[in-house]
Amino acid sequence: MEFTFTFIRLFFWGIYLISPLLIFLGSSIIIMGQIVCRIEKWNKFDGLYWSCITATTVGYGDIRPLKKVSRILSIVIALTGLMLTGIMVSVTLRTTSIAFEKHVDKSEIEKVRNKFN
């Protein structure tokens, strides 16, 4: 249980430290989505929904841009979403590594490494 608490504490500390970047990327996705929603004449919620689905690269296809400018912005939204996702994965992996180093005996880690090598 200590491992979990260490992970949670470190994870939220890491998120706090990079929050300006996360806010910038998240806001960019939402703003670009609202620009596309105006170009495509969607309602605001559909623009928000579409930008989040595009940023996470899920892409259900139920709403899609038809105009060239909107399609270009959708590429930018997808790339921005990949950056945002990559940053979150990086923080999660680093936090897990630190928590393991703190709570798992190094000799146990070496035994596991040697077992797979």
Automatic annotation (TrEMBL):
A biological process term (GO) from this entry: stabilization of membrane potential
Any single Gene Ontology cellular-component annotation: plasma membrane
GO molecular function, one term: potassium ion leak channel activity
Principal location listed in the UniProt entry: membrane
Keyword annotations: Ion channel, Ion transport, Membrane, Transmembrane, Transmembrane helix, Transport
Keyword Membrane: yes
Subcellular location: Membrane
Transmembrane annotation, as ranges: 12-36, 72-93
InterPro entries: 2pore_dom_K_chnl (IPR003280), K_chnl_dom (IPR013099)
Superkingdom of the organism of origin: Bacteria
Record carries keyword Nucleotide-binding: no
Domain named Potassium channel: residues: 29-94
Topological relation to the membrane, as annotated: Multi-pass membrane protein
PANTHER family in the record: IP11374P, POTASSIUM CHANNEL, SUBFAMILY K
Protein name (Swiss-Prot/TrEMBL): Potassium channel family protein
